[in-house]
Each structure stands twice: as C-alpha cells, then as structure tokens.
Design a protein that fits this description.
Mean pLDDT: 97
Order of helices and strands: EHEHEHEHHEHHHEHHEHEH
Number of helices: 12
Strand order of the largest sheet: 1-2-3-4-5-6-7-8
Shape: globular
Radius of gyration: 17 Å
Structural class: alpha/beta
Strand content: 15-25%
Bound molecules: 2-phosphoglycolic acid
Number of strands: 8
Length: 249
C-alpha cells in the first residue's frame, strides 16, 4: 500500500494567538488537498485558537514539544494529557533546536516518543546530522544511532504509525537545501534501519519526511523520491506559500 504523504509546518517561536487565527483563516483554502495529511505544529499558546480556526478544514494541529511525565513540578512544560484534552494529534519530538538549546538528548527523545504513543499522539521524531558530521562521512551512522535510541521500547505496531523527520542541521533555516540525492539516501537508510529493528512491513509503513529549507520550488522534486513521504517545513510554513508546498504536484 502506498504511504500517504504528510506535510507539516513547524512554526517554531512565531505567531501570536491572534496572528494564528488570521493566518489559518487565510491558509484554509490554500492547503485543501485529498492527497496528503496537513499538520500545523504551533507554539503551545496558539494550539487552542489554531484548533478553533482550523475547524471544518483538513488542517490538523500539532504541538512542537511535550514533556515525558504525566504531570508535576516541571515549570513551563506541557503534558501529553494537556495536548490530548484539546484534540492534538501530532507532536514534534527532538527537533535539533530543542537538542541544541534545551539540552534534549536521545534518551529524553526516547522517553517522549514512548509517552506520546501511550497517549495516542503521533510523534514526529526528528533526526539529522551537523555539517561536521556530514563532512566526516558519518551521517548514516549518526542518524541510525539517533533512530535506534528514539525507538527503544517502541512496539512495531506503534512504530508503523510514527513519523520521522530527517533534517540535516546545516539545511535548517539556511536556504541550503540538501540535494534530492542526499535527502533520499538518508531517508532510505532510515527506512532500512526501521526494517532492521522491526521487520520489513514496519519499514514500509513508517512515514519519513525531509526537512531543511523546503520551499515551493523544491518540494515537488524532494517529495517525488521513493523514501520521502512529505516534509517538515519551518520558514516557508509561515507564509501563504505553504499552500504551494502542500499542493506540490
Ligand atoms: P526550515 O526549518 O524549513 O526553516 O529550514 C525546518 C525545521 O526546522 O523543521
């Protein structure tokens, strides 16, 4: 069975709640499609207005982060139950900015991935190498290690429904997109890694996005690759152009 494409926006720390409402109203008709799942991952405070504004459309709302505990003394954090209570279906886990600025590790990523599944939230699990690692020729080894740790203790049944976002760090926010060959090579290696951990059916089912300077002009070629099932889009998800990425065909 062909995998359904999933195109997600990662808003990062952008847009106030009122800007969120205006933007989603503008985007609704532009991101209409039957071909792909469309997810807007927005800042925590924008989640409720985003859900409200997206009503009646194909836009699903996701979070950009989540804590791995149910509740408690974790000032400033947001729990899985807070997300499911309002109808959030997706959460980005382990984005490279969270790893770099907020000390997230492969171990906390793994805890969060397992917790998301426990609550029926689909994790968008991020991985990707630095420019130094690419130059050292260790990209595939490094990404395989990230994936293996992220999926420790995750069942095949759960893994089948997961989304992985391969985002080379040097391509994020730089306008320096990976070549389609580079992106396809790593996405294919990730799929092989999942097949190794579980089985071929799981490898075939899991959806793998490419992220890093995806734009209206490169989406079509990237998403046409055999192992690329859509994109995680930062900068271009904040503009009406996101509609062109969603309707890349
Ligand atoms: P970018 O960000 O599209 O602005 O490069 C992608 C991401 O960080 O998810």
């Amino acid at each position: 069975m062909a995998r359904r494409k999933i195109i997600a926006g990662n808003w990062k720390m952008n847009k106030t709640p009122s800007e969120t409402v205006t933007f989603i109203k503008e985007l609704k008709p532009l991101v209409e499609t039957k071909e792909a799942d469309v997810v807007f991952c927005v800042p925590a405070i924008d989640i409720i207005p985003a859900l409200e504004a997206a009503k009646g459309s194909n836009i699903m709302i996701g979070a950009e982060n989540m804590h791995f505990e149910e509740s408690g003394a974790f000032t400033g954090e947001i729990s899985p139950q807070m997300l499911t209570d309002v109808g959030v279906k997706y959460v980005i886990i382990g984005h490279s900015e969270r790893r770099e600025y907020f000390a997230e590790t492969d171990e906390t990523v793994n805890k969060k991935v397992k917790k998301a599944f426990e609550h029926g939230i689909t994790p968008i699990v991020c991985c990707g190498e630095t420019l130094t690692q690419r130059e050292q020729g260790i990209t595939i080894d490094f990404v395989r290690q990230q994936i293996k740790i992220a999926f420790l203790g995750v069942t095949a049944q759960q893994a089948k429904t997961a989304v992985i976002a391969y985002e080379p760090i040097w391509a994020i926010g730089t306008g320096k997109v990976a070549t389609t060959e580079q992106a396809q090579e790593v996405c294919s290696a990730i799929r092989a890694c999942i097949s190794e951990i579980y089985d071929q059916a799981t490898g075939e089912a899991i959806r793998i996005q490419y992220g890093g300077s995806v734009s209206a002009s490169n989406a079509k070629e990237l998403f046409a690759q055999a192992d690329i099932d859509g994109g995680l889009v930062g900068g271009a998800a904040l503009k009406p152009d996101f509609g062109k990425i969603v309707n890349y065909q």
